[in-house]
Amino acid sequence: MSTRTEPGPRQRLLDAAQELTYQHGMGVGVDALLKGAGVARRSLYEHFGGKDGLITEVLRRSAAEDEARYRRTMDAAGHDPRARLLAVFDRIGEIVAGDGYRGCRYLAADLALADPEHPGHAVTREYRERVAALFAAELARLGHPRPAAAGDQLLLLVDGALAAGATRPATDPAAAARELAEQVIGQAHDRPPLEPRA
Predict the structure, then answer these.
(1) pTM of the entire structure?
(2) Cβ-proximal residues to 138 (8 Å cutoff; 6+ apart), any chain
(3) Is 65 helix (H, G, I), strand (E, B) or coil?
(4) In order of start, what are the domains of the chain with their CATH numbers?
């Protein structure tokens, strides 16, 4: 007979903070976080050293989850690099149209965390670098002449679509970003694509 293990205080704090900071922003109070997690204040300091440490770990966990989602979206599109990249923008269109969409967690964090030395900024920066590198790898397979720069351009379009999806959703920003992405990707049209990966 198996017994179900309830999540401990650390896990409950992460779960509550991940939800509450997305719904209400990084300024959500410590008391609300503790209440949402159902833990004592002591647990926050024991596991994270305070709210800044908790926020940083939430960003780190969210970044790992979102990077995995990018990979799953691209893998579901097949082997063609162009289709894999454009699938990202199709998926963004679905996300921004969904109930409860509040914008990009990472943009919101960077704007809300006023201290430039807050460790959360390093997490968001490294996350964006990994996503841009993911795009660049596909662009290199297409034979793009400047895959790293084009990967950064696609990331800029992603950031813009996610931001506009929260502020101007009626404009269908993901479709506009996809159209621009086709132009970035199309710069590789005169070079033969690399062989698909095994």
Answers:
(1) 0.88
(2) 74, 81, 84, 85
(3) helix
(4) 52-186 (1.10.357.10)
